[in-house]
Task: inverse folding
């Protein structure tokens, strides 16, 4: 291809993407349609970002042509479809090559989409506004009108800092790992509110989860997301339920028995409508459980060891200082630190058939985000690298766990390439090892954003469950 031809082709695709932007905006704002490609949202994206989203992250996945993307968007707009998830990749993956047949195929696919009933969104309160809390805020604000969730308030400890609200807003606005907030943020110190992309968020200062009247702020039947990790048992988390306006509580950490530990995609359907307190397990448990399920379903897992190489977190010291935990007092920025992880045993809470079959340990390393889990497994049946990778690749593209499992085959990927990944975990196919019944699988995961995406999926499920019970 000559230079002129390549440049003209690029400009043509950019022009098409620019034409698509207002259609995408109209579908999202006016009809509650969420256009995406293999889980990557096209809403509020630039032309070049849209073009990049059409290219698959997974090896051998289907690449969407911009002209075909325009076909789907145009037909969705013309047919008046509402309240659907519009996956351009799924609609085009097996479409006929001839234009007439292609259009008929896409039109039929759009007509067959399952729509949700337009309802008033469910109120969400973030109790704690640290790393996970702020990422949850970004995701929920970014999905406004699309997933039935509405961020109404954040709760933080009382502060004597005069510009506390501005500091909170700035932490939402700028992030050293995940970049700038995509949109605008304004604060009103008189009313203690943050306005983010049209979402008005009440900032509540409190240190007692049982002493907040959310109804005074117009908040009702709210899902409270406890991001503090301060309470992990039923009695502690039940304090939230004593506050007027709270319907259910979700903990963004592993909870103590008998609380249900949920990994979305694995056991979220087991949540009983009467469960008022639910936990979202840990980032590592969310990353490895879907992959372990796929492998166990296909070959059977006799036993295994999970080693996580995990980015440092706020519970470690930047420089050597006293710490109640072993080794975590040593400088996180300078050391690899051996520590414990309960993720391997926690897998059994979501996938009981693996109870007693897994051990685990962890090494904290001097990186701020993205971790990797090394699954060292002995199987009931023999396999090969090619067979195992084909299984995991298929699971990432069209399996029931495709929103949890990603797959990549690239000789130069490193941890920062997975910052912002919304998959619970991404299998590194080129690192897979298989010798008969013994296999080693490497799973990358953004322990902040990927986990937050899983938490939002649980919130969506809780909201849908509550709406189904509403007479």
Result:
């Amino acid at each position: 291809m000559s230079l002129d031809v390549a440049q003209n082709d690029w400009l043509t695709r950019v022009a098409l993407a620019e034409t698509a932007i207002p259609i995408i905006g109209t579908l999202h704002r006016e009809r509650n349609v969420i256009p995406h490609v293999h889980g990557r949202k096209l809403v509020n994206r630039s032309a070049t970002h849209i073009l990049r989203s059409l290219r698959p992250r997974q090896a051998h996945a289907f690449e969407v042509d911009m002209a075909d993307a325009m076909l789907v968007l145009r037909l969705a707009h013309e047919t008046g479809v509402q309240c659907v998830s519009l996956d351009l990749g799924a609609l085009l993956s097996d479409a006929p090559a001839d234009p007439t047949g292609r259009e008929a195929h896409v039109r039929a696919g759009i007509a067959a989409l399952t729509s949700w009933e337009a309802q008033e969104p469910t109120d969400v309160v973030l109790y704690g506004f640290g790393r996970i809390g702020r990422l949850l805020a970004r995701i929920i604000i970014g999905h406004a009108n699309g997933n039935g969730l509405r961020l109404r308030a954040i709760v933080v400890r009382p502060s004597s800092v005069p510009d506390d609200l501005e500091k909170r807003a700035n932490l939402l606005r700028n992030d050293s790992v995940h970049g700038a907030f995509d949109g605008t943020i304004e604060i009103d110190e008189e009313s203690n509110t943050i306005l983010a992309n049209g979402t008005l968020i009440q900032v509540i200062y409190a240190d007692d989860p049982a002493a907040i009247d959310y109804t005074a702020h117009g908040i009702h039947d709210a899902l409270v997301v406890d991001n503090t990790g301060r309470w992990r048992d039923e009695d502690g988390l039940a304090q939230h339920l004593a506050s007027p306006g709270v319907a259910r509580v979700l903990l963004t950490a592993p909870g103590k028995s008998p609380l249900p530990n949920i990994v979305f995609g694995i056991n979220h359907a087991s949540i009983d409508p009467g469960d008022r307190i639910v936990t979202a397990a840990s980032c590592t448990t969310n990353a490895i459980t879907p992959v372990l399920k796929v492998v166990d379903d296909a070959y059977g897992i006799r036993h295994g060891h999970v080693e996580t190489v995990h980015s440092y977190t706020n519970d470690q010291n930047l420089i050597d200082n006293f710490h109640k935990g072993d080794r975590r007092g040593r400088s996180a920025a300078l050391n690899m630190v051996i520590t414990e992880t309960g993720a391997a045993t926690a897998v059994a809470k979501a996938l009981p058939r693996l109870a007693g079959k897994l051990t685990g340990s962890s090494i904290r390393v001097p990186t701020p985000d993205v971790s990797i889990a090394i699954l060292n497994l002995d199987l009931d049946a023999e396999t090969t690298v090619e067979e195992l990778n084909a299984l995991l690749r298929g699971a990432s593209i069209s399996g029931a766990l495709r929103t949890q499992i990603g797959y990549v085959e690239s000789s130069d990927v490193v941890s920062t390439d997975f910052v912002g990944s919304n998959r619970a975990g991404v299998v590194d196919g080129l690192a897979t090892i298989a010798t008969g019944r013994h296999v080693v699988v490497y799973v990358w995961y953004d322990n902040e954003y990927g986990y937050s995406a899983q938490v939002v999926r649980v919130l969506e499920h809780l909201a849908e469950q509550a709406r189904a019970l509403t007479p």
